[in-house]
User: Which sequence fits this backbone?
């Protein structure tokens, strides 16, 4: 939506560099995790997901890492592009059936 | 595009009024969820409907209510609006309830004056 990310932590990267966005989740019972990208004026867009029986999953230019020991999730974006500029949210599903708990979000800014 | 449409895109109401927000899900999606996103924050789960029945609810008072219809449309109703209800309201649909990819609409921006 409009003005998403006004007060969010910001990660600024150079175009072509790799980006790493981190997230700490809250519920050790959560078994499904998702990363969403939200651009201004739009709803969250699915990027990649991972289930708790995995610790790494790769997509096109994106990788999600899950560390259940410390309840930490990260999103790696390779060769970051200006079109990757957005707010990124992690979300967890604590086995309640797609009733997601979202993190606070990180704004990614890509400098050309 | 996600195939989930919401209306209206923007809405201004005054405190104490009632509002109805609408969502049209992808055909075949049996589950619809509503989220509230305050400025600068992540979305918060309001409730979920599965095959026209409420299937789960977040920490929102009863003045937040919903309906889901057989034609894959749904509504979010908020009574006795408060200033803190000003937010972006997001609708999301999925095929089923468990660990399925959610498709979000672009939201309705509600301002309560």
Assistant:
């Amino acid at each position: 939506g409009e003005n998403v990310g006004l007060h969010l932590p910001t990660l600024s990267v150079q175009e072509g560099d790799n980006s790493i966005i981190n997230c700490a989740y809250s519920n050790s019972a959560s078994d499904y995790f998702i990363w969403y990208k939200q651009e201004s004026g739009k709803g969250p867009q699915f990027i990649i997901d991972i289930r708790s029986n995995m610790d790494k999953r790769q997509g096109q230019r994106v990788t999600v890492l899950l560390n259940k020991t410390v309840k930490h999730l990260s999103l790696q974006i390779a060769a970051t592009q200006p079109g990757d500029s957005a707010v990124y949210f992690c979300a967890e599903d604590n086995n309640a059936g797609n009733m997601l708990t979202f993190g606070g979000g990180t704004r990614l800014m890509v400098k050309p | 595009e996600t195939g989930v449409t919401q209306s209206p895109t923007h809405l201004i109401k005054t405190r104490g009024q009632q509002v109805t927000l609408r969502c049209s899900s992808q055909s075949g999606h049996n589950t619809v969820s509503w989220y509230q996103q305050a400025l600068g924050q992540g979305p918060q789960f309001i409730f979920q409907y599965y095959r026209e029945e409420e299937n789960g609810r977040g920490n929102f008072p009863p003045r937040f209510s919903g309906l889901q219809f057989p034609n894959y449309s749904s509504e979010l109703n908020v009574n006795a609006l408060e200033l803190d209800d000003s937010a972006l309201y997001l609708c999301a649909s999925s095929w089923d309830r468990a660990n399925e990819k959610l498709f979000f609409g672009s939201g309705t921006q509600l301002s309560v004056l």
Q: What stands out?
A: The radius of gyration of chain A is 14 Å. Chain A touches chain B at residues 1-8, 31-32, 34, 36, 41-46, 49, 51, 89, 91, 93, 95-105 (CB under 8 Å). Residues 1-6 of chain A have pLDDT under 50 and may be disordered.
